[in-house]
Amino acid sequence: MAKAWMPGAERIDGGLVRTINGIGAPRAVWTVTGTDPNAWSAREEARRLIHEGAAAHLVWNPVNGKVAQSLAATHRAGIALGGASMGEHHVDHGDEGRVCLVVAVVATEGEPFTEGPMVGLFGLLEWLDSWGVPRTWPAGPPGFKNMGPEQARRTWSRGGHFGHDQVPGSTSTAPGHIHPERVLAEFSGLAKEQEVKAPSGDSSTSDEHPEWRPSVMT
User: Fold this and answer.
1) Residue range 44-62: average pLDDT?
2) Is the pTM of this model over 0.85?
3) Mind listing the domains of the chain with CATH numbers?
């Protein structure tokens, strides 16, 4: 059963926010805080984002596994997912979908968090799963904008996991060139350890991603 608050996450009041609308497929949007996970905690970064009016649902430190939750799953994130103008209209798709959950990772774009330990990832993914977010990256690996606006909107409508840079209308470049197969890997023995270690090599990418799915982790 889906819970509005992730079990085990520290709750931090995200302030007054609007509820999301009920149209579209469930989504998760991944971004980064732009800060060093060895120096800043999930709690500190969650409070900073709230103060800046950019509250995310979850703020996750992948080094120690701590998660701070500022918003219930039924509320819209404060983070500006649109961040761009098309014609005379400001585009903000961050409130679309039966649920649109924003995960802010305490990390920088220059040092992709998938290249280090990802402690606590299993529990985080279980919570996203419980809200019906498909374990796919419909727009392909983040960091490679290869779709026009119309195709990006069609891909967004399918639900799944997206980088902040893949949200239609977004001008963000976060979360950087992460390895999506490391994020959505099907865990085996590592699931019990709640940790994923750094990959041993680079991942190849493709310009065509009709329905990009992670390979099984062995």
Assistant:
1) 94
2) no
3) 10-184 (3.40.80.10)
